[in-house]
Amino acid sequence: MTKLLSIRLVAILVGLGFTVVALYSFVVGAYAAITEEAPGHLPYEEPRDIAYSFDGPFGKWDVQQLQRGFKVYNEVCSACHSLKYVAFRDLEQIGYDEGQVKAFAASKQVPGIDPNTGEATTRPGLPTDYFPSPYPNNVAAAAANNNAIPPDLSLMTKARHDGTNYVASLLAGYAEPSAELLEEHPEAAPGPGLHHNPYFPNLNLAMAPPLAMTGQVTYDDGTEATVQQMSEDVAAFLTWTAEPTLVKRKQTGWPVLIFLLFATVLAYLSKNQIWAAAKRKNG
Amino acid sequence: MADTAATATPETTGVADDGIRRRDFLDIAAVSAAGIGGLAVIYPLISQMAPSKDVLAASSTEVDVSAIQPGQAIKAIFRKQPLFVRRLTPAEIQAANAVSTGSLRDPQTLAERTKEGHEDMLVTMGVCTHLGCVPLGAAEGEVKGEFGGYFCPCHGSHYDTAGRIRKGPAPTNLEVPEYEFTSDTVIQVG
Amino acid sequence: MSFPWAKEYTPTNGVMKFLDEKLPLPRLVYNAVGAGYPVPRNLSYFWNFGVLAGFFLVLQIVTGVVLAMHYAANAQVAFATTEHIMRDVNWGWLMRYAHANGASFFFIVVYLHIFRGLFFSSYKAPREMIWLLGVVIFLLMMATAFMGYVLPWGQMSFWGAKVITGLFGAIPVIGEPIQIWLLGGFAPDNAALNRFFSLHFLLPFVIAGVVILHIWALHIPGSSNPTGVEVKSESDTLPFHPYYTAKDGFGLGVALILFFAMVFFLPNALGHPDNYIEANPLSTPAHIVPEWYFWPFYAILRAFTVDFLFIPAKLMGVIAMFGSILIWFFLPWLDKSPVRSGHYRPLFRKFFYVLLICMAVLFYCGGAPAEEPFVMMSQIATAYYFLHFLVILPIVSQIEKPQPLPYSITEAVLGSDEKAVLGENAKAAA
After folding, report:
1. Residue, of C1 and A11, whose pLDDT is higher
2. Cβ of B176 under 8 Å from any chain A Cβ?
3. How far is A57 from chain C (nearest CA, A)?
4. What's the rounded Cα separation, in Å, for the pair A93 and A63?
5. Catalytic residue numbers of B?
6. Is C405 exposed, middle or buried (0-12, 13-18, 19+ CB in 10 A)?
7. What is the complex's ipTM, to 2 decimals?
8. Is C296 within 8 Å of C356 (Cβ atoms)?
9. What is the pLDDT of residues B102-114, one digit of tens each?
10. Going by fewer Cβ within 10 Å, which terminus of chain C is more open, N or C?
């Protein structure tokens, strides 16, 4: 008994020790919080909420939109950004047929080996090849872009909070910083080679506005290619590249959940039957 | 364990008939639902081991055969296995056609093993039908065996100029994969 | 083991009889989770979480073995093979999302299981060993989960590995050599990734082994129950099967509905977007946060911001973080109240609810950036956390006057027990 008592005494002392140290940190922190002004965050904006066909539990791809977005990527973004986890063959999932995919792949040069000399060269792509990177390596990418490496876009919409809306908002969101903002946060003024964008967390990014004017891309389906439209379309396309299985996932989910609901109701009724017997027996 | 859930405990067997029936029905239904769910789970678990999309996409190969001279062969790769493409000389075609198919272990004519209009182009898998070794004879200077086609060094199977088994333990001719000429110079295998 | 009225296994046919003589596995199952295990008849749904934890362990092992068939533990390709699983492997996306969310659900049910144990003092004699093994399982789970999170080799994987192994660097003198030894290098790379994969594959089976010990230890005194009154007679118990198999089956159904709703409709809600960026040793994410199930302990780690006397703040944080779990090992000897259930302990109950609030605060602050007011909130909550387990619990259990207990489980359920004897109540409550 005395031994147990001593365990508890030790515990109380140790516990008071931790408590005192934690509270000491609290007091010091609280004093600092009162006396010093905490550095404020730059006021960036949350992405705009845009409605997409693939939103929600019943969402489906809008193939037309994905094809438009693909065109924007191919004609604009692909100049600097790779798409390395997407293969040409994957394009069959967004409504292109085998011949179109083959032709598109062949129009791109991918790294290859000269069969006669063994030297590194390029060859026309095959459907099994992946989208080639515009730069041979990161050093080249940095050198060509003022030291800012253009990130791979395959997973961009999953790699940012609220990614689809973020990409669309950012692309269409370039604007000159307002006078009030510069007055309040002089450090928010874009430096050399930087561009102001209210949706970018530190308000200034190295990428110049890539979608600058209506009609920059000519859509095959006749949709008017406004900056807003192109931004939304390419964001939709990048949502597909980030998770090609998104719609299949949601469509698989429903039968699974309905079955589980049915099985759980059965399990509940069965459980009640079994327990009713126990209650009758002793009640 | 789960399948005994429907067994009534002795205390409850005294309940009225319809009660028992309803109870049994519910228990059986609940346990069956669990069983169906369990079986459904097996499907993706088995399916995940089948070839993935990238492997399936690479299951068709194009081979340019324009550079092969009569008497020469090239080795290509089809589904991660060697593929022999051989342009036969007139003498080799003649030798192959001279054999009566009745005397063969796996009776096939050269014409059956090539495409119409391209009887000089023999496309076979480079996989011995005995135990899967790669036969010799496709590359320059390799032993071609007693019948001038291919020779498998593992267990001594001899194939003739039509890739047919003539001597040794292999049971069948070298497999001719599914292929077609997409142009006069390119074949698509698979 | 167990109670004299436990049903005995009788093989019904020749095959089972043969098996029972040569390898009595059916008998073992019958006595462990079958009709041969008498269980208190009054268990609430809080007693479902043990079985659910077992289910999620099995789910993690099955999906994990599948993922290991397609994943390559090499820093060059780890991220790409993870994407290969998501895009090209048949049902690979389902396996990976089930594994990632399965970890979260495993922790959810285990946290509920632990706090069930804390409220009903399930750690008290004669069940100390069950509790101790449970804490061991929890520690192994944390190690396994941490190493698993490194494997996709995203930004959070890399920086999580760096920060957590960096904790060992806080140990004076030997800290840095230990950190380098753990990583097999000066920063996380191939060596660390490979050993984490190896151990991440091994540890779940170690967990499964300790789970068997946990259940074995449970079957010696039998399950605890919401009144905390020990089983006195046969009328206090019901056979595990079919009563609790049915109840657990229903509970499993509910858990699976919630789980698959997450897997199919919100698979990334509990993850962090930065882990979809490949590991980059040259760029740190803006906020490094661990997975949500580590947040309370991460908050405790970060609560110590100021050097105290000769103890550096970093070392104090590390000691406190590990200490916050290690003190659970001592609970059976710190809480000496003769009454188990929080239902009959008015003072303990109040403090327990404060602890729950503090845990909620720690959860929230651990996921928030290291800024005010979150740091101050976590400092207060951390102080209470240690105060609760090490100071309040021993003192309350000494001074508290518990409410009267029911004579037996039967009485608690049915309102009367023919075996009830006046006077025994008072004795139990004293």
Report:
1. A11
2. no
3. 6
4. 9
5. 155
6. buried
7. 0.93
8. no
9. 889 999 999 999 9
10. C
Residue located via tokens 């040793």: C281
pLDDT digits (tens, 9 = 90+) for B130-155: 999 999 998 888 888 899 899 999 99
Q: Where are the domains of chain B?
A: 2-47, 55-189
pTM of this structure: 0.91
Which chains neighbour C (Cβ–Cβ under 8 Å, 3 or more pairs)?
Answer: A, B
Tens-digit pLDDT profile for residues A161-210: 999 999 999 999 999 888 888 888 888 888 888 999 999 988 999 999 99
- CA–CA min distance B125, chain C (Å): 27
Residue type, A153: L
Q: Domain boundaries in chain C?
A: 47-288, 295-399
Pick the CATH number of B55-189 from 2.102.10.10, 1.10.10.60, 3.40.50.300, 3.90.1150.10: 2.102.10.10
Q: What's the CA gap between C20 and B62, in Å, rounded?
A: 62
pLDDT of residue C261: 97
C99 is known as an active-site residue: no
Q: Does C89 touch chain B (CB under 8 A)?
A: yes
| Rounded Cα distance, C148 and C101, in Å | 12
Q: What does the pLDDT read at residue A143?
A: 92
Percent of chain C with pLDDT over 90: 87
What's the Cα-to-Cα distance from C340 to each of C202, C230, C337, rounded to whole Å?
36, 10, 7
**Residue A266 to residue B40, Cβ atoms within 8 A:** no
Which of C7, C84, C219, C343 is flagged as catalytic? Answer: C219
Surface of C (279-298) touching A: CB under 8 A: 286
Q: Do B33 and A127 touch (CB under 8 A)?
A: no
Q: B14: which residues sit within 8 A by CB, 6+ positions away?
A: none
User: Nearest CA of chain A to the CA of C403: how many Å?
Assistant: 24
- Do C97 and A249 make contact, defined as CB atoms within 8 angstroms? yes
Partner B contacted by C80 (CB < 8 A)? no
Percent of chain C with pLDDT over 70: 97
Residues C279 and C103: their CA atoms lie apart, in Å, by 22
Please give the CATH topology (third level) of the domain spanning A63-86+131-243: Cytochrome Bc1 Complex; Chain D, domain 2 (1.10.760)
CATH architecture of C47-288: Up-down Bundle (1.20)
**Tens-place pLDDT, residues A119-160:** 999 999 999 999 999 999 999 999 999 888 999 999 999 999
Q: Least CB-CB distance to B44: which of C94, C239, C245?
A: C94
Q: In sequence order, what DSSP letters do the residues of C156-187 get, joined into one string?
A: HHHHHHHHHHHHHTTSTTTHHHHHHHHHTSSS
Cβ contact, residue pair C273, A161, below 8 Å: yes
Q: CB-based contact (8 Å) between B10 and chain C?
A: no
Contacts of B190 (CB under 8 A, 6+ apart): B59, B60, B61, B78, B79, B177, B178, B179
State the smallest CA–CA distance between residue B75 and chain A in angstroms.
14
Amino acid identity of B154?
C
Mark yes or no for CB contact C246/B5 under 8 Å.
yes
Cβ-defined contact of A263 to B40 (cutoff 8 Å)? no
